[in-house]
Write a structure and sequence with these properties.
Layout (H helix, E strand, L loop, with lengths): L2 E5 L4 H13 L4 E4 L6 H7 L8 E4 L2 E4 L1 H10 L10
Parallel strand pairs: 1-2
Antiparallel strand pairs: 1-3, 3-4
Helix pairs in contact: 1-3
Length: 84
């Protein structure tokens, strides 16, 4: 699985998606918008993206944190059950 996550500085949801990747035990590439790529370049590449984080898996635009969590639960990479 080839995962790329576009993030921004100071984004709480971006931090949470990185925690999700660690929890799932998957490798990913993190691209910091504003440093590794400009906002303009990002908007041109992904005009339908509405915010950050923005996840791409195997060249498929997944979306933000919620969409990525849903996909990981569906694929059995993480559990939706809370640890007690």
């Amino acid at each position: 699985m080839n995962i790329t996550i576009y993030t921004t500085t100071g984004c709480i949801y971006c931090d949470k998606i990185k925690e999700l990747m660690q929890r799932a035990g998957v490798e990913y590439t993190s691209i910091l918008v504003g440093k590794d790529i400009t906002r303009e370049q990002f908007k041109i590449k992904y005009p339908l993206a509405s915010g950050f984080p923005f996840t791409i898996i195997d060249d498929e635009e997944i979306g933000g944190l919620v969409e990525t969590v849903k996909l990981f639960v569906e694929r059995g990479l993480v559990s939706s059950k809370k640890n007690v």
